[in-house]
Structure formats: structure tokens, C-alpha cells
């Protein structure tokens, strides 16, 4: 066989590939060609190194184009490895039937996958949250910075104001997988980006300044929630926390390219309701990770985690990170624990019923984003069938936090 010439490499499909690559230069572009996703040029070299793929070429000699590919059905497993390594991936699909195509098959980038925007359960740790955060404001010691964070896989969305010199500690407490930083701001400084990576292991993503300014952020939030004011969410006026929240919504719109209807509420997080534990203390106490291995195994959380579901494990992790300080809230939680602990038979039955339930919040999010899989719908149906039993078991509960469980389950 003769090798391809540069002119032969300039096919309609390759021109199409280069067009999309120019739009997403910071992403590894997975380009759908039949039953494979193919990567070219430097993307192919990165994929070959990170995934152990064979690196081939579309030609020989000076005009050789590096090429690597994976079967389309193996995408999830490879995505997980790339994202864990800190890479961002653009998924370019064929959007028309090749048999009906007149000329080159139409393709489009249908999704951008980044460390903080994972929703597929095969890519997520079932017992840990996966958060996208944003930060905005001055870094002066006497200034207030806004920090917003969302768990796209469940729809939980919160924002807070914090002293600017505590902002990094808040990112550590949140456990963000990706942090959005306003371009040209003091938070975009190399030393802060490095601190984010080293202290949180999060990917630092620099975003245009207009996404954080009052006009751009307000437009994003008002458009998403279909409101003209955020007073209904408890926000009186504009501040840095809403600028950060708006930047989160703008980024999700750009990367997800689908409905975000499951993000229905923006909650104001009040730091005074919780004990503030700085990042260094969390590390030294090994609350979530051990100092030696930086793994969950052996941490305080791992030692006390007897939860039956991934949802419960994630909730327990948040409780340890953000301990309550209000007397009433603490007593209400203690009363609920005491009530169940005093009835070990009922507690055992509730635990047994919970063991076979699915992570409803994550499945609901995938339904909203039109990404749900058949097996998730089956698991959701099986979980719904078990709700009457859980309602029956929790019916006699009378503590403040448990009394409302049965009505909510029926």
C-alpha cells in the first residue's frame, strides 16, 4: 500500500475534526468514526500515554498524523481514567445516520467532560460527592469572597460569603474536584492556582471575567431559574457569592449542552450555623483522608462509616466536615439517633430495606439531563417499590427529624 500524501490527509472528515479541535483546544477530542472514537495529533499521544493505547498513524514519513482509538462501547472506562488524571474531554458524536449522509457525516460536540461535571455513575465514587466550585472577590484579608459549589450529579447548589483569607480553606472543606477562577483576578495568580491544586487536588479552570461580573452572573442565574429576582431564595441584593454562583451556571450551560432542570434551588450557606474547621486541621485529624496515603481507607470517616447507601455515606461526610453549632439543631439530630438506637430491631429492618435502594438523587439528575440508562430506570423502579416498606418502618418514629419520614415516603 502506498502511504497517504498531505493532500489525501486533508479529507472532509479531517477538516471537520480540525474545526472542532479549534473550538476546544484545551480538551481531548473524542471524534466518533463509526464504531470507534478516534483521537489525532497530540491528543492521540496523550491518550496513548494515559490509557496504554497503541499509537498508530494515518500516514508515514513527515506527514504522519498520530492516531489512537477506542471502541465506542468502552468510552466510560476510558473517560474515568482520563478525568482522574486531570484531563478534560470533548465528546464529538455523529448526529446523523451515516447511511443517509450526503457527503461527510454531520457531527457535533454533544458534551464536555471535566473533573467537576461528572454525572455518569460509572465515573463517580458512589460514597463521595463530586463538586464543581467557583470563587470570586478580593483576596485582601479584610475582604469578603464568594464561594459557590454544585454537585451536578444530584442538583445540590449552594453559595456562601467567607473572609477572603479563608477561601482556600472553604474549597478544602467542600472537597471540590474542579474550581473556576476569574481570569485576571487575584485568585488567578499562579501561587493561588498552585495552592488549589496542592491542597484540594482540584483542577483549576480559569474562566473569562465577564462570567463573574454582576451583569453576566445575574443573567445566568435569572435565566436558569426563570426569575427576575433571587429574593425568593433568600438573597437580598447582590454580592460576591452570587457572582460565583452565576459563573457556575454559565460553565454548566457551556459544558453540558442539555437541560439542568434538576438544579432547582440555590441555597445560602450560613457559616455561623457550622463549626469552621480549617483545611490544615481536616488534614491533620485525617477526617477524610490519611496523611500517609491520602486515601479514604483508614480515615476517621472510613472508621465510623456504617451507612448502607452511597447517599448516606456522602451525607455523613458532609456532617463531619460541617459540624453543627446550633443547640436546637444538635439536639434534634441527637433525638433522632437516640430514638432509632433504642429500637435495634426496627433499626436493623430499616437498614436492611435501605441496602437494596438506588441513589435516587443521581438517577433523577440523569433523567433531567436526558442521560439516564435503562439499568438506572430499573433500579429506580425497584427502589420505588420498597418505599411503602420504609414508610411502614418509620411510621412510629416521633423525633423531630424522623417523624416526617413516613408521610414523605408515601
From TrEMBL:
Q: Which residues form the DNA mismatch repair protein MutS-like N-terminal domain?
A: 11-121
Q: Name one GO molecular function term.
A: mismatched DNA binding
Tell me the ranges covered by the DNA mismatch repair protein MutS core domain, including all copies.
280-397
Q: Which Pfam families match?
A: MutS_I, MutS_II, MutS_III
Limits of the DNA mismatch repair protein MutS connector domain: 130-264
Keyword list, A-Z = ATP-binding, DNA damage, DNA repair, DNA-binding, Nucleotide-binding
Q: Which Gene3D superfamilies does the annotation name?
A: 1.10.1420.10, DNA repair protein MutS, domain I (3.40.1170.10), MutS, connector domain (3.30.420.110)
Its Gene Ontology cellular component terms are: cytosol
Q: Which InterPro entries match?
A: DNA_mismatch_repair_MutS-lik_N, DNA_mismatch_repair_MutS_core, DNA_mismatch_repair_MutS_N, DNA_mismatch_repair_MutS_sf, DNA_mmatch_repair_MutS_con_dom, MutS, MutS_con_dom_sf
Q: Which GO terms describe its biological process?
A: mismatch repair
PANTHER family given in the database record: DNA MISMATCH REPAIR PROTEIN MSH1, MITOCHONDRIAL, DNA MISMATCH REPAIR PROTEIN MUTS FAMILY MEMBER
**UniProt-recorded name of the protein:** DNA mismatch repair protein MutS core domain-containing protein
Amino acid at each position: 500500500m502506498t502511504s497517504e500524501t498531505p493532500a489525501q490527509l486533508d479529507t472532509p472528515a479531517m477538516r471537520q475534526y480540525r474545526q472542532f479541535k479549534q473550538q476546544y483546544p484545551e480538551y481531548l477530542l473524542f471524534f466518533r468514526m463509526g464504531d470507534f472514537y478516534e483521537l489525532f495529533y497530540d491528543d492521540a499521544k496523550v491518550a496513548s500515554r494515559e490509557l496504554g493505547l497503541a499509537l498508530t498513524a494515518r500516514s508515514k514519513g513527515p506527514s504522519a498524523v498520530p492516531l489512537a482509538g477506542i471502541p465506542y462501547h468502552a468510552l466510560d472506562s476510558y473517560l474515568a481514567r482520563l478525568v482522574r488524571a486531570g484531563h478534560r474531554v470533548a465528546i464529538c458524536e455523529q448526529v446523523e445516520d451515516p447511511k443517509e449522509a450526503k457527503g461527510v457525516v454531520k457531527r457535533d460536540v454533544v458534551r464536555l467532560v471535566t473533573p467537576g461535571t461528572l454525572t455518569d455513575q460509572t465515573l463517580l465514587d458512589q460514597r463521595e460527592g463530586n463538586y464543581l466550585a467557583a470563587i470570586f472577590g478580593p483576596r485582601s484579608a479584610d475582604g469578603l469572597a464568594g464561594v459557590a459549589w454544585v454537585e451536578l450529579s444530584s442538583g445540590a447548589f449552594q453559595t456562601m460569603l467567607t473572609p477572603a483569607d479563608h477561601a482556600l480553606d472553604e474549597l478544602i472543606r467542600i472537597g471540590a474536584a474542579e474550581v473556576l477562577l476569574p481570569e485576571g483576578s487575584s485568585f488567578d495568580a499562579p501561587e493561588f492556582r498552585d495552592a488549589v491544586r496542592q491542597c484540594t487536588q482540584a483542577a483549576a479552570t480559569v474562566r473569562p471575567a465577564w462570567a463573574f461580573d454582576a451583569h453576566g452572573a445575574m443573567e445566568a442565574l435569572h435565566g436558569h431559574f426563570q426569575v427576575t429576582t433571587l429574593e425568593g431564595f433568600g438573597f437580598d441584593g447582590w454580592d460576591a457569592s452570587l457572582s460565583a454562583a452565576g459563573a457556575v451556571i454559565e460553565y454548566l450551560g457551556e459544558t453540558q449542552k442539555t437541560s439542568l432542570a434538576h438544579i432547582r434551588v440555590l441555597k445560602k450557606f450560613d457559616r455561623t450555623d457550622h463549626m469552621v474547621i480549617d483545611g490544615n486541621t481536616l488534614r491533620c485529624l485525617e477526617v477524610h483522608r490519611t496523611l500517609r496515603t491520602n486515601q479514604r481507607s483508614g480515615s476517621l470517616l472510613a472508621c465510623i462509616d456504617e451507612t448502607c447507601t452511597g447517599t448516606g455515606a456522602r451525607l455523613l461526610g458532609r456532617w463531619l466536615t460541617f459540624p453543627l453549632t446550633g443547640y436546637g439543631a444538635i439536639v434534634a439530630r441527637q433525638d433522632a439517633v437516640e430514638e432509632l438506637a433504642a429500637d435495634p430491631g426496627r433499626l436493623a429492618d430499616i437498614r436492611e430495606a435501605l441496602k437494596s435502594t438506588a441513589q435516587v438523587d443521581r438517577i433523577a439528575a440523569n433523567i433531567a439531563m436526558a442521560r439516564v440508562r435503562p439499568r438506572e430506570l430499573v433500579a429506580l423502579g425497584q427502589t420505588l417499590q420498597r418505599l411503602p416498606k420504609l414508610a411502614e418502618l418509620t411510621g412510629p418514629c416521633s423525633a423531630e427529624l424522623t417523624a416526617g419520614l413516613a408521610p414523605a415516603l408515601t
